[in-house]
Amino acid sequence: MTKLSKHYYSYAFILPLGIIYFIFFLLPTLMSFFFSLTRWDLADWEFIGLENYVTFFSESSLTIGFRNTLIYAVVTCVLKVVLGLLLAVALTSNLRSKGYLRSVVFFPTLLSTIAVGIAFSTLMHPTQGLINQGLSYLNIVGPDWLGDTSIALLSVAFVDVWKGVGMATVIYIAGIMSIPQDYSEALQIDGGTAFDKFKHITIPLTAPAMNSVIILSFIGGLRSFDLVWAMTKGGPGFSTDLIASIIYKQYQGGFYGLATAGNVILFIGVSLLAFPLFMLLSKREVDL
Amino acid sequence: MRAKSKQVLTAATSLILVAGLVAGCGNNANSGNNANAGTNAEQTNGGGTETNAAAGGNAPAEGASAERYEETVTLKMLIDNQTSTEGLKAVTDEIEKRFNIKTEYELRPGGGEGDNLVKTRLVSGEMTDLNFYNAGSLFKSLQPEKYFVDLTSEPFMQNVMESFLPTVSVGDKVYAAPSGSSQAGAWLYNKKVYAELGLSVPKTWDELMANNEKIKAAGKTAVIGSYKDSWTSQLILLADYYNVQAEAPTFADDFTNNKAKFETTPAAVRGFEKLASVKDYMNKDYLATTYDQALKMLVDGTGVHYPMLTFALSNIFATYPDKIDDIGVFAQPGDSADKNGLTVWMPAAISIYKESKNIEAAKKWMSFFVTPEAMALMATKAKPEGPYVIKGAKLPDDAYGGVKDMMPYFDNNTNAPALEFLSPLKGPNLPQITVEAGAGMKSPADSAKAYDKDVEKQAKQLGIAGW
């Protein structure tokens, strides 16, 4: 009691924000667990137990959705980690137009995802798009980037990487800049090459940055929605549906309870994948 | 002690701040209500004449000045941003002139997002006085009996054709009036190319396929596919409903009551088969083509057939006014020539919100809206895409040629409403399922099965009896 009254001055300051956080974040989160167990039309609800979960798991497009989400998350995550690191190394070297190039790489991050999606779906049009018209000058018949079900998802993933790699690069650059110069001086004295520097100094010492990039881009990939929606709306058919777009379609259909159940599943799924990954990654961090 | 009072003071001021915030929001809401109450008061002044207006629904021109409100009443109408409001405005301008009732249009998105917006506004009690929304299964999913004014016994509803009423009724109560002309789900075709190639309008599916073959041989796209806008892929399936009904007359009821399935009804599977069979006649980039690009192909004559709703005629007229007469319409043929008929889409519904402060004015508004005179006014700005569903309203002489092509199906009574106007069920994944069927990713039988599953999910989620 004494402890609480001692601190209640500070609690009073937390209170307004706490109320807002509770009303707009915690309460809806808790309520969603409840509404996922109901048939809900926004006005009335009827308790139906786990039926929504059963329905959601028997959704025909869901298997595609789970598979697509994993592929999408892994592909975008790996490409961002690798390309981001290479770009960061290049952009911290003694390039002349370093400042300009850094902003070029970062620029796509500033654009609206929807605008990027619309622009790229125009560029990727099989007959009138800039990409395939360019290829046709080289006498290559480009594929239907977004219409061919076997590559549509990868096309979207490519755009995601184009847009997101700038953020990864910036995180890496910060990591590389914080490596003390002493290490590379020692390497120079020992006569190491640039590749040795990359392998023995840059990679181990940017591990914390790399972990952030992996976690951020992997979680981002798992719950990705806006880009797919702008480019393909999950189509053709269900071939680029991600879990998030399946959930959104349930919501559009007016199945609010079912959509909420889908979100609870997504929440649990992301947590199950992200927490072990985080644990694993933080173990191998090296102290500077 | 002093420190403590300071603490209390701080706590109190922060509370006041929060309270101020909340009160601020509250005030806004209140002032909104006051404004409404104001119009309400004005409206009751003129309310006494309302019954006159309703009784004189057929001929409101007489004694219009007596029915005029002293002060302007403003009605708000929520409408999707894809519907052209030109024609509606011609009518509402006249309503303003006659009754001093002003109509404000509030735009919302169409499609699924629009559905959710409308539902949210209804549940949160913030619907506009008038709601412009699809008739049929979508309207029924709004639970009209809960949110809209019962119009069953309003005299002006006598003007509305019987065929429209079931699409906006729950039980035997009617909850909305029609917003204009009906339209058809049919095949638009380029008459010029038809003449060049010496083709005639097909009466059976086989004849249509033979025409497709000839068009393909002539180096043109026989059937335009625009699956980038996935809703357009549904047309061949949905426009086949006249043929389904001809083979299985009780399908709509059985389907609603969980007694008939697409998969086990051969006539229904036939729609998916027709959809799959035109794949080889479609443009190569049909998965990347949009609705707008498809219209351009049809007008240019690079594409010859386009299965579509006839509202496309208005879009064509707006963009290519000199080409509108090149476009004709025929019903999607069935398997025998003597069972050839048109599948009809009902116009959107306009309903009055139950909690509106201006119900009397809205009824007066509607009593003029559903007259032949109003439809004629509408036609001056927006040509009809099919016959009107108001008794006595005639097509204007300058109607689109395509619409005139549709008239024999109405004169001979060989038409049927689309399934979504007969049943509250329409699976939300149908556009994706028809893309799969049309692109050959799934067999027609599997697509029918997938759709049955989609419908079952919807029925269970909506809690429809018997599922």
Mean pLDDT of chain B: 86
CATH class of the domain at 68-241 in chain A: Mainly Alpha
The CATH architecture classification of the largest domain in chain B is: 3-Layer(aba) Sandwich
| Intertermini distance of chain B | 70 Å
Low-confidence stretches of chain A: none
* Secondary-structure element order of chain A, N to C: HEEHHHHHHHHHHHH
Helical residues, percent of chain B? 40-55%
Shape of chain A: globular
Report the CATH topology name of the domain at 68-241 in chain A.
MetI-like fold
Written description of the protein model:
The complex is a heterodimer of chains A (288) and B (467). By secondary structure, chain A is an all-alpha fold. In chain A, 74% of the residues lie in helices and 2% in strands. Chain A has a domain at 68-241: MetI-like (MetI-like fold), CATH 1.10.3720. Chain A has a two-stranded antiparallel sheet. In chain A, helix 4 crosses helix 7 (152-177) and helix 7 (152-177) runs antiparallel to helix 10 (207-222). The two termini of chain A are 43 Å apart. In chain A, 35% of the residues are buried. Chain B has 467 residues and is of the alpha/beta class. Chain B has two domains: 2-182 and 346-394, D-Maltodextrin-Binding Protein, domain 2, CATH 3.40.190.10; 183-344 and 419-462, 3-Layer(aba) Sandwich (D-Maltodextrin-Binding Protein, domain 2). Chain B has helices at 2-47, 50-55, 64-67, 86-99, 111-123, 137-140, 144-147, 191-196, 205-217, 235-238, 241-247, 251-256, 266-277, 291-300, 312-319, 359-369, 372-381, 401-411, 430-438, 444-462, and strands spanning 73-80, 101-108, 130-133, 169-170, 173-174, 177-178, 183-190, 221-223, 303-309, 327-330, 342-345, 349-352, 415-417. In chain B, strands 7, 8, 9, 10, 11 and 13 form a six-stranded mixed sheet that branches. In chain B, helix 4 packs across helix 16 and helix 19 packs antiparallel against helix 20 (444-462). The radius of gyration of chain B is 26 Å and the shape is globular. The interface between A and B is large, with 40 and 41 residues. Chain A: It is found in: Cell membrane.
